[in-house]
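Morning run. Coffee first, then this:
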Amino acid sequence: MSPILVRPVREQLEHDRVIRLLQVKLKKRHDVAANIGPDQTVPVKIGPVQIFPDLVLTSADKGRKLAGTVEVETAESVNHLEAMAQWAHLGRARVPFHLYVPAGSVDIARRLAAENHVNLSELWSFHTIGDQTRFTLVHRSQAAEAKRAAPAPAKAKPAAARAKAAAAKPRPRAAARKAAPPKAKAQKRK
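And here it is:
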């Protein structure tokens, strides 16, 4: 359970709604299990501590290996106590830790993460306009950046091969110029 024993009702509803939105968004790449409200069903064991992050990401294959954790905070829950009790432990795990905070709490979350030596893979902000919630990536760690960039060169190789093949084929205009007599070329230069 979170160190914040009682969250204001409005914030708890917003918290749970954001978790459900992220659950749908992240299902494209992972199997996602949610720990919403009193339904704490999927724990993550980090050393001797057992924590229930808001979302637990696992691989979609048969091994169901832990792939990451997600914690969603509200303006009320971005505080030193929360950072020490949950963020610090989740940051020590060997999987990416993603933190989602309200747009107005980004600076506080950054400061708390730095003070408590929390290893954040990604820090996201969110804000709600009407019934739409928008997420903005605020920070990505260098390790997460390198991992994300690694698959890109593998996709670039076929494109490079296509470019070489296209360059090897003569273009119709170039072929027409080569076929023209040398006198025509000399007259064009004058």
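The CA atoms of residues 7 and 76 lie 7 Å apart. Good start to the day.
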